[in-house]
Structure formats: C-alpha cells, structure tokens
Amino acid sequence: QVQLVESGGGLVQAGGSLRLSCAASGRTFSSYAMGWFRQAPGKEREFVAAIRWSGGGPFIQDSVKGRFTISRDNAKNTVYLQMNSLEPEDTALYYCAAGAPGPYSDSYYYTPDGYDYWGQGTQVTVSS
Q1: pLDDT tens digit at each of 128 positions of the chain
Q2: CA-CA 20 to 30 A from 17: which of 38, 48, 67, 113?
C-alpha cells in the first residue's frame, strides 16, 4: 500500500514558478514509477511528467517540456514537480500517482492506467 500527499500548489502570476511535492508512504517507494497528472475543469486528466524507479526517465509532456522538471528523492520518499514560466493554461488540479514496477514500456506510464495509487490533488492557479 502506498499513500500519497501532494503539497505546494497555490496562486501565481503568469511567468512565475511553483514546486509541487508528493510525499509517499510505503517501504517500496523507490521501486515505483511516479507521475504527475493534471485536470482542468471540463477536461480529462492529462499526463504531465513521470519518472521510473532509480530515476529512469524523466518523461515530460511536450506542452510543458522546457518549463517543468520532475525529480525524486528516494531517501525522502518524495517526488517533485518544478514548474517554471507558468501560463494560465497550466491552471488545473495536479495529482501525484504511483505505479507498481513491471515489464512495461515507458509509454505505459504516460496514461492513468499505469498507476495504482493517487493523491488527493493540489490546486495550481495561474493568473494572467
């Protein structure tokens, strides 16, 4: 069982930065793939970034590439999403997710199906 708690969301002006954190409980954190997804009102949940165990990846959605980075600290059981140059289009509820290891291709972790555990989400609002 893995429990995830996100933090770091908030209101920021366009061009600003935020760093989201996701604290995980569970002894096998380091073996899980960790991902960030987001969901804006009226839209489907979309992939933002992922990183596999022992730092495999990272994988970043094209629309945020160059602005967002994902990293993990296995010693702290924490995964981070550093978001720079934020745009109003980045406004959404951001979710952290953990996916069990397995013989999967990297693309398996680009979709919600690749994940077994989800946090409650943290709101990011970017004003223009």
Answers
A1: 789 999 999 999 999 999 999 999 976 777 889 999 999 999 999 999 999 876 567 899 999 999 999 999 988 999 999 999 999 999 999 999 999 888 888 888 999 999 999 999 999 999 99
A2: 113
